[in-house]
Every structure is written in C-alpha cells, then in structure tokens.
Amino acid sequence: MDVQWDDLKIFLAVARAESLSGAGRILKVDPATVGRRIARLETDLGAPLFAKSPMGYALSDAGQRLMGHAVRVEQAVEGVAEEMAGRSGGMTGQIRIGAPDGAANFVLPQVCARIAEENPDLEVQIVALPRVFNLTRREADMVIAVSPPTAGRLSVQRITDYKLHLAASRRYLRAHPKITRLEDLRGHRVVGYIQDMIFDKELDYLREAGIERVNLASNSVSVQINWVRQGGGIGVVHDFSIPFVRGVVKLLPEAFSLTRSFYLVRHADDRRLERLNRFAAALVEGMRMEVARLEAET
C-alpha cells in the first residue's frame, strides 16, 4: 500500500473543513477533484474514511485512526521545512490562533501585530469564535482558552490573569437611579451573555453578581461592550477592554470583582515544532505585557 503525502494532505483538509468545498478552498483545488482523490484513497485503504451526510463529512472509525498518522506526517514535513529554513532567521509561514472574542478583539491584534512586524514573512490568522476549538481536527495551531482542558493530548500553559468588573457609560448613569450597592442593580437594565450559549462556565459572570435576568444579551463580548458604551445598560466587562470604549467606567469595584485566566492550549505533538514554540513564547510574553498595560489604564 503506497499512501502519498499529497493524499494525506487532501484527507486532512476534508477532515478539518468537514466538506469537499471547504477543503477545495484550503487547497485551492476544485471540490470534484478533492472528492475523487478521497474516493481513491478510500479504495486504496479498503475502508470508508468519512460518513457523508447533509451536515457534511464526519470522520469514520477508520478516518479517526488515519487522522493521528496523517497529523504526525504533517508535523514531520513541517519539521523538515523548519530545519531547511534554518532556526536563526525570522519566523515564516502561517499560524492560526483560535480565541474567545474578548482576547481576539482587545489583546491579540496589537500583540500579533508586533510579532508580525518583527517577522515580515510570517502570516498570522486570528479566529474569533465564542466556542471551544478542536485542536485534534487542527481548527487552529493554538488556542487561547479561559479554562484549561482536561482531556486530549494537549499542552496547556497559563498565560496571565485578568480582571472583570461591572461597568456602565456615564450617559447611562446620569439618566438612571444612583447605584451604591449590588442590590441597586435590580432596577437597571443588564447587558450580558445569552445564557444557553455560554460555552464555558468561567463566562457565567452575572450569576456571581446575583443577576438572573439579562435585558440585552449577545454571545459576543464586542456586542456587549458596545451596548454598554451606547448606554444600553450595565454589564460585566474585561478591564482590558475599557481603554477602548470612551465614557465607560467601572462600578462598585470594591463590592464586585472577578479574576479569570487565559491559557495557551496546543496539541502535545506540536512541542517538537520550533517555529510554533518560538511563536508561542512571543505570544505569551506579549499577552502578559498587554493585559497588564491595559488594566493599568483603568
């Protein structure tokens, strides 16, 4: 049986995109060609690699087994490319980071811009999605998480703590009854998450403030902070986001304050890739400095 790297590359693209069209976009190949190559690979291996449905292409049991081998081949190819390029120069290639949109909007852009400026041949992608990323399927090269995962062959590094407080716009506070204690919040409009779309228990901020009803809800941190900025109501916001929104101030900081942490999550096998190690080190240091700088401004 002769399985080529080109075959595995197409297999990986379909597994990650969960569709022929998505894999075609990744590889810049016609989807029909992708389908033929997958069919040929399945014939060569004597087993179906995907379960096809209207929802897309999901890995079969045989596909799951092949996935681990394919990823290791991919890492070996990347390792050879790194060695040939030499380790003394700047970072090159593409690196994709998955992140919750708070970090993705207010911390990562400036951190990654500085890294990219020092490495002009490096392409950085930030995927801001309010959900947990699947590193096994290689949805991203590394992920910023708000709680450490407990399953899978993953490498987890704590990056930094960050603070959250109640906040409102000055315009809202001028137009509504004064707030001097947590109990006063009951008479105010509240901005927060859509309850059934909270993908991590660490994001259930309002419950810790004793607030159960949310008047203006979104699964996006950016939408929430903009509602607060526009005078929509009171919300729990990241301290590092406040410098970006004029006219928003913290409320009752002595009575209510939350501390959360960011974690860098990578696939364990990626620790052998020097390029990703160097990028991860720069990312962690940059995020620690940027969160501290922004929180100092509040």
Automatic annotation (TrEMBL):
<dbReference type="GO" id="GO:0003700">
    <property type="term" value="F:DNA-binding transcription factor activity"/>
</dbReference>
<comment type="similarity">
    <text>Belongs to the LysR transcriptional regulatory family.</text>
</comment>
<dbReference type="InterPro" id="IPR000847">
    <property type="entry name" value="LysR_HTH_N"/>
</dbReference>
<protein>
    <submittedName>
        <fullName>Transcriptional regulator, LysR family</fullName>
    </submittedName>
</protein>
<dbReference type="GO" id="GO:0006351">
    <property type="term" value="P:DNA-templated transcription"/>
</dbReference>
<dbReference type="InterPro" id="IPR036388">
    <property type="entry name" value="WH-like_DNA-bd_sf"/>
</dbReference>
<dbReference type="InterPro" id="IPR058163">
    <property type="entry name" value="LysR-type_TF_proteobact-type"/>
</dbReference>
<dbReference type="InterPro" id="IPR036390">
    <property type="entry name" value="WH_DNA-bd_sf"/>
</dbReference>
<dbReference type="Pfam" id="PF00126">
    <property type="entry name" value="HTH_1"/>
</dbReference>
<feature type="domain" description="HTH lysR-type">
    <location>
        <begin position="1"/>
        <end position="60"/>
    </location>
</feature>
<dbReference type="GO" id="GO:0043565">
    <property type="term" value="F:sequence-specific DNA binding"/>
</dbReference>
<keyword id="KW-0238">DNA-binding</keyword>
<dbReference type="Pfam" id="PF03466">
    <property type="entry name" value="LysR_substrate"/>
</dbReference>
<keyword id="KW-0805">Transcription regulation</keyword>
<keyword id="KW-0804">Transcription</keyword>
<dbReference type="InterPro" id="IPR005119">
    <property type="entry name" value="LysR_subst-bd"/>
</dbReference>
